[in-house]
Amino acid sequence: MADKKVIVVFGVTGAQGGAVARALLADATFLVRGITRNPQQKAAQKLKKMGAEVVKADLEDAQSLEVALRGADGAFLVTDFWEHLSEEQEVAQGRRVADLAKQLALSYMVYSGLENIKQLTGGQLAVPHFDGKGRVEEYFQALGVPVTCIRVPSYFENFLTVFRPRKASDRDDYELALPMGNVPMDGMAVADLGPVVVTLMKEPEKYKGKTIGLSMDKLTVAEYAVLISKHTGKTIRDAKISLESYKMLGFPGAEELANMFRFYHMKPDRDVSLTQKLNPQARTFEEWITEQRTAFKNL
Ligand SMILES: NC(=O)c1ccc[n+]([C@@H]2O[C@H](COP(=O)([O-])OP(=O)(O)OC[C@H]3O[C@@H](n4cnc5c(N)ncnc54)[C@H](OP(=O)(O)O)[C@@H]3O)[C@@H](O)[C@H]2O)c1
């Protein structure tokens, strides 16, 4: 045990970090040090029981991060834009970890980034929850930290939450209101991210310096609707909502998400065969949805 390398996992009580920590624990090549602001919470305690070390630290507090990263060999970093909705805050958090990774000479990092859309589109389109992560990707690379940036597509799990089919106002069936027209949208189960990161951590030399767009399926909204209908017994249709109407839905983040969908129309680089190679057990949408019948029961 003493000779096992330590991997620090940020966001360990959340979707991405939780998946990564569980997969690293199951694989058992590395020791897992999970980071949370509140080690007493249930998700943190559960990971502790599974064998993770749980350390209290805050991405806002460099000193706590230094203690958390000291002695580690590598780290997985995800930052949460949605908690504060500030691009600058997300960039500052990411850079704080990048600076420490350099200072402490971590041998490898996996960073959950995304495209700097503002830069890619010459300022035409700004999507702060992507742009900030893109700036952090650039920062890691400029510092020369040995890093692989992964770009996670829309989680399949979003169909149970933010993209949940809604009851149609004038009918008995349900509608999927995602403004993608007939353009396919990439996705994967966030639960399947864990083994992807384990593969990277075990073969850093192969993937250092690369940026990898992940995806397990590229389906149109109509195709997602057909598969949800087929496996849940509910009738789901594509609401055929436009980007403009989506923007006007009025929930917090609607405009930000509408701009993200606009970017998705440009078909960002997401590589299904590489994702399958990194996690041969990762599920397609149909494989995932067959396991969700109960979750969709009370739509
Ligand atoms: N939803 C999607 O389809 C999708 C796709 C691609 C990328 N993303 C990106 O994924 C990110 C969110 O990741 P997630 O889904 O795993 O989030 P999540 O399930 O909401 O969990 C957020 C995690 O971040 C941690 N965290 C937040 N602020 C922190 C801070 N100041 N210091 C330390 N830890 C902090 C939380 O830890 P504690 O509360 O325990 O401290 C928690 O573990 C977002 O930035 C989003 O843009 C989402």
Automatic annotation (TrEMBL):
Keywords: Cytoplasm, NADP, Nucleus. It is found in: Cytoplasm, Perinuclear region; Nucleus. It holds the Pfam family NmrA. Belongs to the NmrA-type oxidoreductase family. This is NmrA-like family domain-containing protein 1. InterPro entries: NAD(P)-bd_dom_sf (IPR036291), NmrA-like (IPR008030), NmrA-like_oxidored (IPR051164). GO terms for cellular component: nucleus; perinuclear region of cytoplasm. Coiled coil: none annotated. SUPFAM superfamilies: NAD(P)-binding Rossmann-fold domains (SSF51735). Residues 4-289 form the NmrA-like domain. Transmembrane segments: none annotated. CDD domains: NmrA_like_SDR_a.
